[in-house]
Specification:
The chain has 396 residues and is α/β, with parallel strands linked by helices. The protein has one domain: NAD(P)-binding Rossmann-like Domain (Rossmann fold), CATH 3.40.50.720. The chain has 13 helices and 15 strands. The strands form 4 sheets. A 7-stranded parallel β-sheet has the order 3-2-1-4-5-6-10, sandwiched between helices. A 4-stranded mixed β-sheet has the order 12-15-13-14. It has a two-stranded parallel ribbon with strand order 7-9. Helix 2 packs across helix 11 and helix 6 packs parallel to helix 9. It is globular, with a radius of gyration of 22 Å. The chain starts with a helix and ends in a 7-residue tail after the last strand. The structure holds NADP nicotinamide-adenine-dinucleotide phosphate. NADP nicotinamide-adenine-dinucleotide phosphate binds next to helix 2 and strand 7. Pfam families: NAD_binding_4 (PF07993). It is a single-pass membrane protein. Belongs to the fatty acyl-CoA reductase family.
Length: 396
């Protein structure tokens, strides 16, 4: 069996979502650890007046790419920015680009998605389901495709007690939903959304589940694997420890706690904080493509699913998160902290409620014991904006 870098040697790779959190790490790791890779084509839409090429040029200037730049100064020559908006017909690809991609791509990583939990259902369907369908259609036209990797989420099936490495029946047939959403206006869709979601908490997990079904139904003879990470956090080791570029989910909570702004949060101390470092997820993703791709003639064709989660062997609980946050930020304080970090995760809704009250103008208000209110910008990544009261006299 070839090694991972050997497998990628001479290959043309296509990545969607390369400007996103995980896509960037994927691009960096692929180029750094597999120096024989021929080219990385990245589908990028223009944004804020910047063309795809300019966006990529900006992106590779960031610290994440420092190590790669040092090891391979000419790495940028291998990145080909292709203009594409995944929500537009034909992915908005020019005929020329379609011809190039269908004739040269060997491996596809489909990472792009909307990860906003509260995205309107129609928009979440557009990107998470319909764009996946367009990518699969493009993949069918690729003459030299060896493997198609779809990045899903471990929470696509969060309504289940046990999530095995299989695709589960979807909440509704995605084809029927696509047809229905076509004639419904936005108001009707938003009225219908809670009923459609059923046990699922949001449109994100719902549409990611539908995308998995779409992949299974429409992959035909493509060699496909699905990666399901849980909550993706900062890097563990690569390219250096602690890299992250967003305040989504727990990262925002950690920063707010470290700054001393967040003092109380409702969480079950015994629940598993299923955080996986981004470099672990990306290594799994690259290895999954290597396995499926290099074994494509040796094993019967089947859709492989990889749950990339912490699992049950060595679980890390939210109760431990509280201890780690407080200890870490006391030992290594953040710059310009508002006061000493001391977050409390409370499973009891009443005690949490006691320390948390919504303020009418939707600003985050942190109050010291002397009652002096201090206004802060709303916490990034935390959907509900709340008033946080200090509950001990340590103050500022
Ligand atoms: N982050 C997590 O904790 C986590 C956990 C489990 C699974 N996942 C999955 O991992 C994948 C990547 O997540 P992420 O955290 O990297 O997300 P992200 O940072 O929000 O990145 C999303 C990417 O999709 C691209 N995109 C969005 N709309 C597009 C469009 N219309 N046309 C072209 N590109 C478009 C974005 O491009 P722009 O820069 O142009 O916006 C960006 O590159 C997703 O499939 C997600 O479901 C993430």
């Amino acid at each position: 069996m070839v090694t991972i870098p050997e497998y990628y040697e001479g290959k043309n790779v296509l990545i969607t979502g390369a400007t996103g959190f995980m896509g960037k790490v994927l691009l960096e790791k692929l180029l750094r650890s597999c120096p024989g890779v021929k080219a990385a084509y990245v589908l990028v839409r223009p944004k804020a007046g910047q063309a795809p090429e300019a966006r990529i040029a900006d992106m590779i200037n960031c610290k994440l790419f420092d190590r790669l730049r040092e090891e391979q100064p000419d790495f940028a020559e291998k990145i080909v920015a292709v203009n594409s908006d995944l929500t537009k017909p034909d992915l908005d690809l020019s005929t020329e680009d379609q011809e190039t991609l269908t004739s040269c791509i060997n491996i596809v990583f489909h990472c792009a998605a909307t990860i906003r939990f509260n995205e309107p259902l129609k928009d979440a369907m557009q990107l998470n389901v319909l764009a996946t369908q367009k990518m699969v259609n493009l993949a069918h036209r690729m003459k030299h495709l060896e493997v198609f990797i779809h990045v899903s989420t471990a929470y696509a099936h969060c309504d289940r007690e046990l999530i095995e490495e299989v695709v589960y029946p979807p909440p509704v047939d995605y084809r029927k939903l696509i047809d229905t959403l076509e004639w419904m206006d936005d108001k009707l869709v938003s009225l219908m959304t809670p009923k459609l979601l059923g046990e699922r908490p949001n449109t994100y997990t719902y549409t990611k589940a539908l995308a998995e079904q779409l992949i299974q139904q429409e992959c035909g003879n493509l060699n496909v694997a699905i990666i399901r990470p849980s909550i993706v956090g900062a890097s563990w080791k690569e390219p250096f420890p602690g890299w992250i570029d967003n305040f989504n989910g727990p990262s925002g909570i950690f920063i707010a706690a470290g700054k001393g702004i967040l003092r109380t949060m409702r969480a079950s101390n015994n629940a598993v904080a299923d955080l996986v470092p981004v470099d672990v997820v990306i290594n799994t993703t690259l290895a999954a493509a290597w396995y499926s791709g290099s074994q494509r003639h040796a094993r019967p064709r089947s859709l492989l699913v990889y749950n990339c989660t912490t699992g049950g062997i060595n679980p890390f609980h939210w109760g431990e998160v509280e201890y780690c946050i407080n200890m870490t930020f006391k030992t290594n304080p953040l710059e310009q902290a508002f006061r000493r970090p001391n977050v409390n995760l409370r499973s009891n809704p009443f005690t949490n409620q006691y320390w948390t009250t919504d303020d009418e103008d939707n600003h985050t208000v942190a109050q010291g014991h002397d009652g002096a209110g201090v206004l802060h910008e709303p916490l990034v990544g935390v959907e509900h904006r709340q008033r946080y009261h200090a509950h001990e006299p340590d103050g500022i």
